[in-house]
Amino acid sequence: MSLTTPDSSHSIQLDIEGMTCASCAQRVEKGLNTVPGVTATVNYATEKATIWAAEPDVSALVEQVEKSGYKARAHSADSPPKPDRVAALRRRVLISSIFTLPVVVLSMVPLVQFPGWQWVVLALALPVATWGAWPFHRSAWVNAKHGQATMDTLVSIGVLAATLWSLYALILGGAGEIGMTMSMHLFAPPDQIGNEIYLEVAAAVTTFILLGRYLETRAKRDAGKALASLLEAGVAEARVIREIPGPEGTIDIETVVPIDQLLVGSRCVVRPGDRIPTDGIVLEGSSAVDQSLVTGESVPVEVQPGTSVIGGTINSHGRLVVEASRVGADTHLARMATIVERAQNGKARAQRLADQISGVFVPIVIVLSILTLIGWLIFGPSAEWAFRASVATLIIACPCALGLATPTALLAGTGRGAELGILLSGPEALEASRHVDTVVLDKTGTLTTGSMSVSHSVVDTEHEDEFWSYLVSLESTSSHPIAQALVAHAEHVRSYPVEGASADAGFGVQGTIEGRSVRVGRSTWLSEGQLSVPQHLTDAFNDQRLDAYTAVWLAVDGELWGGVYLSDEPKPQAAATIAALHARNLQVVLLTGDSQGPAEHVAGQLGIDRVIAGVSPEGKVDAVSALQDEGHRVAMVGDGINDAPALATANVGIALGSGTDQAMSAGDITITRGDIEQVPTALALASKTLGTIRGNLFWAFAYNVVAIPLAVGGVLNPLIAGAAMAFSSVFVVTNSLRLRRFRATTAGA
């Protein structure tokens, strides 16, 4: 499976300010999509708009957002930090709570209602209904000027209605008389409604919703901490070595440069305790590097000259000189952050339905509230009863829970995945992983160590002297693990120059040495041409069983000279990984270009269900497609460039991050540490995240389906309605935050 994006060739992001609910995000998104040639999606949780267009005009897009009543600016790595809304909300909640508590107590408990208590309540409640609720009033007014309504509109109308009703009752009605008492009924029958004030509703609803928004904002911030940590892991400056003219040639000096001035090939000095500024190769020094933020690996990794290192990781001890191999957006850390952020900005199919509902939710609720008021005025016991039901309807309806259902779960799930070294590409991957019933694994480098070792050889005695020289000379032109093992085994033999070397991926390599045509590869490949096989090599050459070995044969000018048998041991954690996949009721298939014998030997050791051997790199796509034609939902695990097409073909592609960029780009899930034991954990995390999204959406829909009719029916006091609305969003966010406690285990649970 591969992710799809709009056909437009460029994408940009805008930071959106002023969104306070899911309806706001839906309105901004709708406005942006009216711009010709633009496809946009707006994420309420991350407060970002992602826009695809052939030639995006940032100023026009920002202007369109402002027309919708919000502020926007182009997102960039050096964008100024957003204001700390958490601190501002906390202050507003604390002050409002101090005023609200005595208001609620005096309004609810007749025993403490001294003469004139209602006027004290008015004095305490007015600051809350005005200053405390000011964010709601301001947002409602801005949206009203644009002919729009949001969640804040509902809250503002409800608070103002309760306040104005109370002022009317106090000044013109009988509620202001000295000695008046009032008791609050949570579920009051009609005959108990009297001449009441609702200042406790105005104050408590404001405070409850402020508290809910504070908890929601703090939880969203916490859910996004993993991405923030990734972004903050990058360094702002690098200490580089520059050559300058000296009295006797050039001399090296160390100088500090901004990270954006770092070039590929720059030599960087990394002191103990410093972060490595960019991806590179160690030139000098040895140390242990803490890669936990990037790979989830808690044990520091030993590095020495020639070792690749990742930017953003921490040099524990020892001075290192690192040559930059990647800079800027091409670094591993930047690509990780891009994948995580892209995933967090995605939307599940169910969320798109929720967004459509949120877009029309507020106007419908306002109309419903008006109809409730009119209906109870006509058929109800009193105007107060009608008022209570109308205000409760306004306040209890909550589209925010709908809007937060997917984004907060994605924030928490993808953030936790990044901490574990697992990158989820987005909701599409989560939805696809839910139905996976078959996991396809490559053998070499995935299930096995990939470090081939020579077991024994069979060589024609007439060519013993030149066999290894020709073999090593030709294989030295290849980077295949088998070629590397052969070269390492016979590194001291004489080497010849090779002309016209070319590889037939998955089969072998050929070239010209001293004017002679030389081919090294599988027996079936060599047999495709004219091949003379000495009698004493015939049995070995034609034996395709091979048991635990992989055989590589050498032919010169159409004559077989001999063969080498290599073996590759399973990774220590491979058997436990297969057992964990079986525990999830998944079929495991070994897909390899190796011969049937070695493949079945490894499968037998690990308990793998099915073997598909002798498959070329191009054939891997056909093999995955064949499994899908059988009705299977396939997850493909791979780490090489030859795996990328199969990863894209599978329903879910799982790329091991120790492999190539092409494989990682094709994967729906990337395991940055490259450990196969993380595969069950990755599938479990994807399943858990999708389950959380579905649970959130169910709660959000169920809450509104149940709560709104209760409010319309006049059953609920507006105070209870406000509390329920505030904590419906809090429930969704805190439910999502449970994903941050997800644990990686061998069983992938």
Automatic annotation (TrEMBL):
It holds the Pfam family Hydrolase. GO terms for cellular component: plasma membrane. It is found in: Cell membrane. Its main location: membrane. The chain crosses the membrane at residues 93-111, 117-134, 154-176, 196-215, 357-379, 385-406, 697-713, 719-737. GO terms for biological process: copper ion homeostasis. GO terms for molecular function: ATP binding; ATP hydrolysis activity; copper ion binding; P-type divalent copper transporter activity. Residues 10-73 form the HMA domain. The keyword Transmembrane applies. It is a multi-pass membrane protein. InterPro entries: ATPase_P-typ_cyto_dom_N, ATPase_P-typ_P_site, ATPase_P-typ_TM_dom_sf, ATPase_P-typ_transduc_dom_A_sf, ATPase_P-type_domA, HAD-like_sf, HAD_sf, Heavy-metal-associated_CS. SUPFAM superfamilies: Calcium ATPase, transduction domain A (SSF81653), Calcium ATPase, transmembrane domain M (SSF81665), HAD-like (SSF56784), HMA, heavy metal-associated domain (SSF55008). Keywords: ATP-binding, Cell membrane, Hydrolase, Membrane, Metal-binding, Nucleotide-binding, Translocase, Transmembrane, Transmembrane helix. It catalyses: ATP + H2O = ADP + phosphate + H(+). Belongs to the cation transport ATPase (P-type) (TC 3.A.3) family. Type IB subfamily. This is Cation-transporting P-type ATPase B.
